[in-house]
Every structure is written in C-alpha cells, then in structure tokens.
Predict the structure.
Amino acid sequence: MTLNETHNPDLKSWIESANDPETDFPIQNLPFGAFKTPKNFAPHLCVAIGDKALDLTSVALNNLLDVSSEIRAACTKGFLNQLMSLGNDAASELRLALSRMLRADAPKDLQEKIKHYLFERDKIEMLNPARIGDFTDFYASIYHATNVGSMLRPENPLLPNYKYVPIAYHGRASSIVITGRKIRRPNGQVNSDDKGEPKYMPSRRLDYEAEIGFFVGTSTGFGQIIPLREAESHIWGACIVNDWSARDIQRWEYQPLGPFLSKNFATSISPWIVTMEALAPFRTKAFERGEGEPKLLPYLYSPENAKHGGIDIVIEVYIRTSQMQKQGVAPFRLSRGNFKDMYWTPAQMLAHHASNGCNFHAGDLFASGTVSGKTREEAGCLLERAWRGEEPIELPTGEKRSFVEDGDEIIIKAYCEKEGARRIGFGECSGTIIPPFKVGK
Ligand code: MN
C-alpha cells in the first residue's frame, strides 16, 4: 500500500489535542469504532481524533461527508461490517475525506458544523465495532511456540510442522468483549498432575495473551481461496486482542483437539480499528528464515510479502492490582514486544486460512497469537513471563504475580513509531478479573 497525502507527518488538525506528539490518534491515524451517543439509543460509528470521537453516523446523515453514496450509507450503520465489506479502496476514500475535513486548513464554516458531532472520548461508551461472525486465533510467534513447547517437551520444544504451517484454532465470537468489560474467572475441569480425578473448580492459573487482531473486509465465497498476493486486499484493519487463557483448564483439555473452554470464556479487544492504510508507513519485512531453514511452500511465499509483509507495532502489557489501585501506584509494565518478530505475516495467515476454500465474511476476526520476542521481557503472556510460575514477577507494592489474581487489571497498549512518520497508536485493551461463581456440590 502506497503512502499518500493522509500520511504526511506534517499534517495538523484544527482539533488541538490531535497535534499532541503523545496522542495515539493524530490526524494520520483516524481509526474507526462504534459508540452509544448520549442522545441516541442506537449505536453510531465514530472516528478517533485526539481526545475526541467524531460521530461518523451523524456526519454522514447530515451530508457533510464528501464520499460516494455507497460509503455514506455504510457510515450510517451502527456496526462497521457494511463499511468493511466495501473493501480497502472505500476505506481509503473515506479516510481522505475525513483527513481533509479535520485538517487545520479545513473551511471554517465546515469546522463549525462538524463541532456539533464531536464527543469527549473518555465520556462515551464504546461498543463492539463489528458484528464478529467468526474468530480464529493463530500461534504465529515462534518464540512463544518455542517457550510454551519447552515447558511441555523440553527435549523437543518446537513441533516439526511449525515452520511449514501457520497453526491456529477456531475461537468463539460470542464471548469477544470490548475493553473495560470485567472478566469473570472461569470454573472448569482441572487435573493438576494428570493422575487421579479432575476437579471442577475455579481456574488458578489465569493468564492473558497480548495479540494483534485483524478484521476481514471484502468477503470470499464458499470454496474460494485467497492467493497470498491478494490477501491484504481482504484485511481491513487491526486492533489489540487479549486472548484470556486458563492454563490449568487448557492443560487437561487440549489433547487431542486443542483449546476449548480454557479460551472461549472471554476475549477482550480494543475498540478502535486502525486501518491497514494507516499502518502503511510501518510496514517491514517478514520474518527472515536462516540458512538450512525449510523453504516456504509456494502458496505462502511472495517477494512482496517477504519484503513488506510484516508490521512494526510495539505491544506493551501493564498490570494494576487492586492494591496498586488503592495506593495510587501507576500500572506496572510487564513486557514490551514487537509484532515484527512474528514468524507468519497477517497475509500468510489469511491466505493459509482460505487455502482449503474456507470462506470469509466482512467483520470476521483473526488474531495473531501471543506476540513474544527473544527475551523474557518481550514475552506476551505470564506463562512465559513468569516461566510457569517458577519466576514470579515482583510488583512495586511488593506483591508477586505468577498468574492473574482477582482484582488485577491487565492493560495492553500498542503503537507504531518510525523516523519520518507520525506516531500512531491503538489505544488500550484492558480487563479486570472478578471472582468466580461459587462451585455447587
Ligand atoms: Mn492466543
């Protein structure tokens, strides 16, 4: 995807907070979401700009958007699915119109009209941005796969298929919730030593997984494949994903068909969908395979994907325990990794997912799997970060964490920074753990 006038790092907005160098949402970002307006009961679409959210639905209904009637109609819906289904060219047309409307040199009378549709971002309730029909979660970090594998099979950490096939499991769309929703600790079958009988009890090894998720735009038909070179034209945008995981339940249930109840009780996402066009300045090469590494099968290789298939996105995980909150202690950073370290690119994930003819709908979500890097500080889940609970993390309050406790808030942030480009961010994906339901006799 080529750069255009919307990426110009010198662009400023007439909305002052968008010009703050620290903001996640400068005019070069313009991510989309959905919210409940104070006046309207039905959800409206919106765009983040500085500390404001622009009510896109109202702007479209009042004919203030210089876009095709098809795009305008899609903007009046309460979910992004219809806009996503129009594909990336439509998203690009809309982004250009919004960029021009929000620039410092936009006509004053237009600014006055638009001002009526701006809301303080921290005062509105964000909603799920899309009706998510299907959710798939990959396992695309070779560091995460090797670390987790070495806990289960020290002599043979990485399974032989890993370097050939992008591994994934089918997740559950019904339990995907927006940032801020409380997460109840799940009950489930736990058999801690695999001997004796399992117990139905609250999970004691609750974990997070910091991931990047991708929304599908244009749909594909039943039986249709997506060639790698076309895969990115089907990817509409990205958000932060927390794939909450109950490690003790997972350990007992995962063989032979993979995760089930250990994962599907909750998945949190950040509310703002950063378009692929906004991410264009931060594209980077795909994971480089060394000498003697297996070659990619042809359907997973293209020179373009090797050169630009990766994305440079920093992803950070913070914890705030209830004690930290009471004492006014700032959230503590547990890790900082980068999406560019992933073994598989988003395009490879999608091309592989469709390689058997599996069809996709606008608003389907696939996530990358835990984003982990080489070092312990880059580990995107506590299982790795505190190494199975053997090396608990000490917090500023003196508390220790091997897994997530009740009252803990986990906050994931992501952003892109590069010389010559304007910094953009994803906002936050957070969730606080609440105690489990009592297990009956
Ligand atoms: Mn995951």
User: Anything to note?
Assistant: The two ends are 58 Å apart (CA to CA).
